[in-house]
TrEMBL record:
This is glutathione transferase. GO terms for biological process: glutathione metabolic process; toxin catabolic process. It comes from the Eukaryota. Keywords: Coiled coil, Cytoplasm, Detoxification, Transferase. Residues 90-222 form the GST C-terminal domain. One of its GO terms (cellular component) is cytosol. Its EC number is 2.5.1.18. It comes from Microthlaspi erraticum. InterPro entries: Glutathione-S-Trfase_C-like, Glutathione-S-Trfase_C_sf, Glutathione_S-Trfase, Glutathione_S-Trfase_N, GST_C, GST_C_Tau, Omega/Tau-like, Thioredoxin-like_sf. It is an enzyme of class 2 (transferase).
């Protein structure tokens, strides 16, 4: 089954689509990238994900797998003998990785996105304060999880690295738009160093969007784009 054809339905700018692409790169699994057009949904997408009707979808042979973090776990289990293990081997470490990945999606990313939606300086300050508070928690989480190693997962990129790192392109765009450094070397030195190492990893570099290109794309999404 592991040798069946692999395809990803997605869009280049989506941080959630980046997750399975990075995981497949880590496992050295070749795949075809099926690019969705912004603002529309292909018949293949609707057929493959009839419940949520959204990207990403992994097509492994004729079987679809949906939801980005679930896809990453599926990739790790299906190609367990290829490349490094993505999920931690220790059950507690695995639970912590899943906990913080959920926190990033449900709390941290929501606050980051709200920066670009903020109306006026006061609202922007409030949202930035929420992001900085979340960053402080993630800085501690990194130091606890990494145990002095370069990544959340230790010596190499893992589940939580992928979950958080997939947002770094949009984080840079948000920093430009807000005129504010969100991952600050003084306040979050460990995360700042981690972010640089993550973006330069061979599994990440080919799929990490270029900041200027992503910033132009962002103008199509937000009704009131900030330069």
């Amino acid at each position: 089954m592991a040798n069946d054809e692999v395809k990803i339905i997605g869009a280049w700018a989506s941080p959630f689509v980046m997750r399975p692409r990075i995981a497949l790169n880590l496992k050295s699994v070749p795949y075809e990238f099926l690019q969705e057009t912004f603002g529309s949904k292909s018949e293949l997408l609707l057929k493959s994900n009839p419940v949520h009707k959204k990207i990403p979808v992994l097509l492994h042979g004729d079987k679809p797998v949906c939801e980005s973090n679930i896809i990453v776990e599926y990739i790790d289990e299906t190609w367990s003998s290829s490349g490094p293990s993505i999920l931690p081997s220790n059950p507690y470490d695995r639970a912590m990785a899943r906990f913080w990945a959920a926190y990033i999606d449900e709390k941290w990313f929501v606050a980051l996105r709200d920066i670009l939606k903020a109306e006026g300086e006061e609202e922007k300050k409030e949202v930035l304060a929420k992001v900085e508070e979340a960053n402080a928690l993630l800085e501690k989480a990194f130091n606890d999880c990494s145990k002095g190693k370069p990544f959340f997962n230790g010596d190499h990129i893992g589940y939580l690295d992928i979950a958080f790192g997939s947002f770094l392109g949009w984080l840079r765009v948000t920093e430009l738009a807000a005129g504010h450094k969100i991952l600050d070397e003084t306040k979050t030195p460990s995360l700042s160093k981690w972010a640089e190492q993550f973006c330069n990893d061979p599994a990440v570099k080919p799929v990490m969007p270029e900041t200027a290109t992503l910033a132009e794309f962002a103008k199509k999404i937000f009704a009131k784009p900030r330069a």
